[in-house]
């Protein structure tokens, strides 16, 4: 229940697990099922269950993930989310439901922390004096991420002047016009590619004098957005899953660096992008499922798979994604967190938080992207 490329990354994880002689992995088969919305997600889970699947990985889109997780839970299957971030997925503890990636609250909190800890001091401003606008796509992903932004902004007493949803595919001009009227200085945005492009276009066309523009993942970290924004893409900060190339790889544990090198070799041989954050996430998350759960569980029952998942303990820097792994009582990876990046010479580079940073904010601006 992943896109074709992500499913191929899962296949590479299975190949590596077999190279590592993981117990029981010789009996593992990868069966794909397509899902593009809630209805097809439920049908896909039913099809996979009928095929005898005991564990499901997915699913890239939050709307798909929520429906698939509910269906998997009802069917007594392990559901292991790799990509989607909607908070609702792990809002409450459910046996067999886990998310390797960070949740939307983390995606939303990170840009707010960045503004408070780096942007405001760099401007010589009290963070509470900055006028903030939040414009998001009205999807499960956009709503969840914007909710995280609002909660963190409230906790830090930031001055949020605008918090507005934009329908999928709709023109963002009215929302940005409102930001202009409210003299917003810092714009936080979340949504898929169409929303990201529309929001940036409106900011550019209306010449809104922002001090900082931060786009949360999904749409903003894509090449499609970079191509549409052109040179302006370098002025937009991006919160999201960072490709390992964007991180300070020296902070990774030796075993993670070795695994990253092996992944890149396999991906290149398969004709896949070898420095793509989502593919790396799918590969690492699936490998952890194979080695840390299926390889450790005494049998394929949901109770055994659930217990093995909860026993995983990977320190920060122990994955090729830079973060660690420890699931809390809700099944959320409490050590997962996004990076905040900026395009430097056309490539994303992490600038926040410090544990991920491959370049400081000052260094990034010194390279001409400020």
Describe, in plain words, how this protein is organized in 3D.
The protein is an alpha/beta fold and 370 residues long. It has 2 domains: 157 residues, Response regulator (Rossmann fold); 167 residues, Response regulator (Rossmann fold). Helices cover 43% and strands 14% of the residues. It contains 12 helices and 10 strands. The strands form 2 sheets. Strands 5-4-6-7-8-9-10 form a 7-stranded mixed β-sheet, with helices on both faces. Strands 1-2-3 form a 3-stranded parallel β-sheet, with helices on both faces. The chain is globular and about 60 Å long.
What is the fold's blueprint, element by element?
Elements: H1 4-19, H2 38-50, E1 55-58, H3 62-75, E2 78-81, E3 97-99, H4 104-123, E4 131-137, H5 140-155, E5 159-166, H6 173-181, E6 186-190, H7 193-205, E7 212-216, H8 223-229, E8 236-240, H9 254-269, H10 277-294, H11 302-310, E9 339-344, E10 347-352, H12 361-369
The CATH superfamily of the largest domain turns out to be Response regulator
- Rg over C-alpha atoms, rounded to the nearest angstrom: 20 Å
Question: Percent of residues in helical segments?
Answer: 40-55%
* CATH level-1 class of the largest domain: Alpha Beta
How would a crystallographer describe the biggest sheet?
A: 7 strands, mixed
Strand-residue fraction?
5-15%
The strand count comes to 10
Round the mean pLDDT to the nearest integer and report it: 91
């Amino acid at each position: 229940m992943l896109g074709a490329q992500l499913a191929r990354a899962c296949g590479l994880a299975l190949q590596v697990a077999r190279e590592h002689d993981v117990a029981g992995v010789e009996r593992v088969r990868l069966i794909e099922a397509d899902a593009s919305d809630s209805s097809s997600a439920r049908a896909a889970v039913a099809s996979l269950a009928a095929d005898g699947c005991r564990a499901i990985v997915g699913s890239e889109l939050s709307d798909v993930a929520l429906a698939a997780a509910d269906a998997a839970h009802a069917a007594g299957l392990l559901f292991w989310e790799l990509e989607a971030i909607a908070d609702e997925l792990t809002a409450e503890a459910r046996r067999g439901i886990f998310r390797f990636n960070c949740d939307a609250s983390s995606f939303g909190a990170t840009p707010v922390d960045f503004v408070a800890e780096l942007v405001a001091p760099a401007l010589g401003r009290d963070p509470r004096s900055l006028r903030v606008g939040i414009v998001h796509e009205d999807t499960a992903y956009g709503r969840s991420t914007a909710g995280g932004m609002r909660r963190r902004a409230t906790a830090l007493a930031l001055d949020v002047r605008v918090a507005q949803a934009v329908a999928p595919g709709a023109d963002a001009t009215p929302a940005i016009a409102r930001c202009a009227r409210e003299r917003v200085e810092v714009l936080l945005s979340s949504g898929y590619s169409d929303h990201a492009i529309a929001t940036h276009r409106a900011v550019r066309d209306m010449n809104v004098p922002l001090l900082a523009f931060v786009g949360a993942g999904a749409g903003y970290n894509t090449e499609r957005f970079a191509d549409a924004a052109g040179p302006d893409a370098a002025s937009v900060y991006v919160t999201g899953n960072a490709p390992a190339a964007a991180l300070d790889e020296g902070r990774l544990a030796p075993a993670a660096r070795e695994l990253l090198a092996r992944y890149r070799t396999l991906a290149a041989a398969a004709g896949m992008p070898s420095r793509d954050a989502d593919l790396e996430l799918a590969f690492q998350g699936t490998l952890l499922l194979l080695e840390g759960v299926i390889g450790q569980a005494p049998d394929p029952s949901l109770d055994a798979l659930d217990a093995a998942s909860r026993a995983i303990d990977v320190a920060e820097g122990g994955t090729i994604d830079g973060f660690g792994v420890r699931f809390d009582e809700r099944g959320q990876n409490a050590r997962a967190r996004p990076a905040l990046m900026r395009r430097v010479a056309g490539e994303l580079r992490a600038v926040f938080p410090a544990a991920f940073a491959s370049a400081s904010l000052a260094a990034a601006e010194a390279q001409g992207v400020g």
